[in-house]
Amino acid sequence: MTQTTSFPLHDIATAPDTATAPRRAWRPGLLPWLAGPAWCCAAFVTWFWPDADDFPATDSLAIACAIIGIVLVPVALLPRFSAKAPWMIALALGLAAWEGVQAKLLLLPRPFFGTPQDLLDVFVTDWRKLGDSLLHSLGLLAVGYITGAVLGVVIGVGLGRSARFRYWVQPIIRLVGPLPPVALLPLAFVIIPSSWAASEALMTLASAFPVIVLTWSGISAVDPAYYDVARTMGARDRFLVLRVALPAAAPQIFVGLFMGLGMSFAMLVVAEMLGVKSGLGFYMQWAQGWAAYPNMYAALVVMSLMCTGLITILFRIRDRILGWQKDGLKW
């Protein structure tokens, strides 16, 4: 006679299921409350540790760090701040380390490596030139990128929908598209008399190629059943493109738009350094020529903020347009 072992059902019911149990969210604990003291420590280092040289705006930098530290103390009560607290602490510690290494000990060669005071002094004294350069860069970038994006979508739709159009245009795209736009810069300045128009043309080319390729790929990947259903309901070609093909290919089109924006950034800086006599790239070249390296670093900071802001705006537009596909988006 075989003896069987029975297990209590309540033990099985209460046992944790490691496969399906949700992971516990990371709780930062006291980490948000350390952001304010970290910035106060940076202010302490800046104020009480004597400078190794006569640097400008040391007092202003210390006051600014102290104000940020005081503001972050009540901000730690906000739930959303928990995710940003590690970065705020890292920025404060990085600033304090930079201040100690360069402003207090002068361990890095000058003038190639400035101090936080030098950078702050540039923003305080030269903000008009930086703002004017930013506006010129935004204007130059907007025209070239928007033109390239529109042309890229139109050409990509034509390649994906028309065999005759694809027969004539595809060899040109394969021949010209992979060329780095920077390599065409001397030729563009010779053919096009205006440096501004030449830069716009090259930025249009830089942004258009990835949009063309990704739009073409997205249009070609649309399920033919979608077209068949629309045709049975009397849809014409215009409806098929605007209401069937483009919405279905929109995720890939936005990938091309992001890639085109990145290529436009690179082309913008090169064009401003070599041809256009305005913008952040021209400002950086001017600063480097006069060995004003803090001004160059300030232009890099403004350029980084500009690029990050534009990418964030494009993400917001994508989320707005593709709200109906939000569950399927993985990036």
And the CATH topology of the largest domain?
A: MetI-like fold
The largest sheet, given as strand count, sense and whether it forms a barrel, is: none
**Average predicted confidence as pLDDT:** 87
What is Rg? 28 Å
CATH class of the largest domain: Mainly Alpha
Strand content: under 5%
For the termini, the CA-CA separation is 61 Å
The count of strands amounts to 0
Structural class: mainly alpha
Overall domain count: 2
Q: Give the overall silhouette.
A: flat
**Considering DSSP H and I runs of 4 or more, what fraction of the residues is helical?**
over 70%
Output the helix-strand order. HHHHHHHHHHHHH
CATH superfamily of the largest domain: MetI-like
Count of discrete alpha- or pi-helical segments spanning 4 or more residues: 13
CATH architecture of the largest domain: Orthogonal Bundle
Subcellular location: Cell membrane
Protein name: ABC transporter permease subunit
Membrane topology: Multi-pass membrane protein
Family: Belongs to the binding-protein-dependent transport system permease family.
